[in-house]
Amino acid sequence: MEKVFESYIRTTPDRLWTALTDPEIRAVYHFGSRITSDWTPGSRYELVNPRADGPLCEGVNLEVEPPRRLVQSMVALWDEDVRNAGTSRVTWEIEPVADSCRLLLTYDQLPADASEQLYGGWPMVVSGLKTWLETGERLTTPGSLMYA
Q1: What 8-state DSSP symbol labels residue 140?
Q2: HSE on the CB side for 89, CA within 13 Å?
Q3: Do the beta carbons of residue 126 and residue 20 sit within 8 Å?
Q4: HSE of 92 in the Cβ direction (CA atoms, 13 Å)?
Q5: Strands 69-76 and 57-65
Q6: Does the pTM exceed 0.70?
Q7: 12-26, 27-41, 129-143 — which is least confidently predicted?
Q8: Integer Cα distance of 69 and 60 in angstroms
Q9: CA distance readout (Å), 136 to 29, 37, 42, 63, 148
Q10: Do 115 and 86 contact (CB within 8 A), yes or no?
């Protein structure tokens, strides 16, 4: 299964890349969760939330091409159902368009019967990212409130 999410964001590719890879900025729009990595191809990353019992997900940075493309394997860890889905892939593609960027998030290599828990939060993440980059404000979403 594959899920694709697209947004146009008034920002620069460098600022968008920083928002994807900086742990403090990521926490602003990704439900309070911080991502840590050294952002080199083949390196590991981990997404953690201070209110969660353990990492929410982890994986490997498969392709790292700042500020245009980031491809990551992902293993969701927040409960047994999502852990059983195995490894999936997240691809972030940034394309400059005039004074904005097209952000294309492709979440694939999911099992055909994947739980909506695995992909249902991505629209809130992308919307929160857009809102923060364009206004400096946090978007209040059900996912954000989960760890408030």
Answers
A1: P
A2: 11
A3: no
A4: 24
A5: antiparallel
A6: yes
A7: 129-143
A8: 14
A9: 10, 24, 32, 29, 18
A10: no
